[in-house]
Design brief:
Length: 126
């Protein structure tokens, strides 16, 4: 093989390795979401549907079934505790990799009670 061909293959390989790790980190696939404590019931006075419609629906779809790019996951039907952990991770800028800034701006103003309510709402959709 020529040096150029070897160099090209090496660069492609390195790019694929780094890109696949970025995708995993971008969507938190490397973060563990097992053994989360059971969340309390959401406050029924909070209109979770309106919160979702105002904060999330544009990108995640009316029923939370718009698949998240690269992961193929839908928000609808995920466990409430996992959704809460992810939203709180976005708020604290410790989850979401390169997309955390976009998501952080969407969820930064949510109270813990609103995070609970939206998570419960989404967990019951499907």
């Amino acid at each position: 093989m020529t040096r150029v061909r070897i160099l090209t293959i090496t660069i492609i390989f390195i790019g694929l390795v780094f890109f696949s790790n970025d995708i995993k980190d971008m969507y938190g696939e490397t973060q563990e979401f097992s053994n989360l404590p059971k969340a309390e019931a959401a406050d029924p006075s909070i209109d979770a549907r309106s919160l979702y419609n105002n904060k999330c629906m544009k990108c995640h779809g009316q029923m939370g079934t718009q698949k998240v790019p690269a992961t193929g996951l839908e928000l609808a039907g995920q466990a409430k505790e996992v959704l809460m952990a992810k939203i709180n991770g976005y708020k604290e800028l410790r989850y979401g990799g390169k997309l955390r800034g976009v998501m952080s701006s969407q969820v930064s103003g949510l109270t813990p009670q609103e995070v609970n309510a939206i998570s419960e709402y989404l967990s019951k959709l499907k």
